[in-house]
Structure formats: structure tokens, C-alpha cells
Amino acid sequence: MADICNLCPRQCNIDRSATLGYCKSSDKVRIARVGLHEWEEPCISYGKGSGTIFFSGCNLRCVYCQNNEISSHLHGTEISVDTLADEMLKLQDMGAVNINLVTPTHYADKIVSALDKAKDKLHIPTVYNCGGYESIDALKMLDGYIDIYLPDLKYYSSEISGKYSGCSDYFDVAVKAISEMARQTGKPVFDDYGHMKSGTMVRHLVLPSLYKDSIEAFDNLAKTVKPQEIAVSIMCQYFPTHLADKYSEINRKTTTLEYMKVVDFVRTLGFEYGFMQDKSSAKKDYVPVFDYRKGE
What we know:
Blueprint: E1 4-5, E2 14-15, E3 29-37, H1 42-45, E4 50-55, H2 68-71, E5 77-79, H3 81-93, E6 99-102, H4 108-118, E7 126-130, H5 136-142, E8 148-151, H6 158-165, H7 170-185, E9 189-190, E10 196-205, H8 211-224, E11 231-235, H9 256-267, E12 274-276
Parallel strand pairs: 4-6, 6-7, 7-8, 8-10, 10-11, 11-12
Antiparallel strand pairs: 1-2, 3-4, 3-5, 9-10
Helix pairs in contact: 3-4, 8-9
């Protein structure tokens, strides 16, 4: 009997070997880039860099996605679970400080299988770098496999999340997911150099015109998840791309004033660790080249 996919809150309930759901992905793992990545938060990409594996497809496909080449247009190469495990070990051999699984939600089951194959040789932390729109059942399947959860918290308003990411239930789902992630990892643990070894770090990209929604999101997150139980990263790297030109309110960069209003508010909530991004990050130079097996 074919596997029916309900890995994410979309609950497509389909056989991905025969048809495609919201994420546009088949039952075969598709990746677009494997390599060392120096542009994550310093506590994640310290040393030689984070060992990133970018997966193609996405269960959100936000209208402003900076990685739309792979999230919406599915650029990438199909690989086996064995190859995925091998790529993790190659990254470790290259000096990666962790294995950073980017947009992994729709391949959670395959990732578990790959980690099972690599576990006897893999000795660096695993990072689950996701959009925050996660199924509790899938997260429980990952329990014990993931050292660091790196979820987004994108929105508070159901109207806004429906408009830009096609899911009006985003905040409620994401907060429950973040709570489960924090339960699994415990409080963030850093070494003497500030390098993250385990824990949950919640990311938020401040969008132009929407700083009040950002404030609402963190205000309500702090009511559900104790600020001392997670770390936060507030990002200002937004620039209009993909379909953003169809929405005048987000068809520009975020201003310093908008960004700092969010930063200043989040600081009042008692989060023990925070990373605030330099405004110079809001440019296309920080989007990686998706060149896995280019030319083969």
C-alpha cells in the first residue's frame, strides 16, 4: 500500500508517488544545494560554516520567498536516502559545525531514515531549519534526531498569513510547533564561545509595513512559550522579490525604524539570547547559488 502524505498541517492526504500536493514534491528527495554556509546566525555558522542541505519544494511558498527558485520552481536534483546520508557525512568531513536541513518539512520521514543510516558516523549537531508551519505528529517522529530547531515565526494575523502564505491558521500552528520543539530540545545550550549546541531558536523576518504584526506575534508567543526556554533571531534581510511586486505594502525594503520597533519590543519580553541582524543583509548577495550537481 502506498504511503499517504500528511507530514505537514496541509494534510494533503495523497500518495506522492502518483500525484503532487501543496509542496509540489514527489516521494523522492530533491535537493538544490549542499555546502558550507557562513551567513546563518553566528552561533549557528561559527567556524568553517554550517553544513547546509537545501531541499526543493515548500509547504508555505510565501509570495516574497527569497529562495523561490527552489521553493516554487522546484530547481534541484532527485537523490536517494542513502545519498542524503552520504552528503551529511561529506559535510562533516569538510569541517561543517552542524548539519543544517533547510526547508525539510515535506521530507521529515526521509530525513529520519537518512539520519538512521548516518548516526554511527555523524558526530555534529543536526539543525532543522523550517518555516514554522509544522505538524506535531511529524515533530514527534523527529524527537531525538534533532539537536537544534530553527523555525520561523512569520505572522500573528490570520488575514496576513492567509494573504502571503496561504494558511490562515499559521500562528496557532506555529506556536504549538515551537512549544513542542522547545520541549524536545530543552533550554538553549551554548559553549564558552557562544556556539549553539542544542535548543530552539525562533527566527522572525520583519516585513515592511507589518511591524505591528511582528510585535503581536512575539507578544503572544511569550504567553505560550516561556522566553527563557528559547532563543530568538530578528532579521531585517527582506527585499522584494518573487511575487512581492503584486503587493504594494511589501514591495520595498523594511526600514530601520520598523526593524528597531520590533527589536526594542522583543528585548522587553525577557528572551535570554537574541541575535539582531545588520541592515546590510537586505540584499540578494546573501541568497546562495542552488547548484547541486550542476552540469551533471
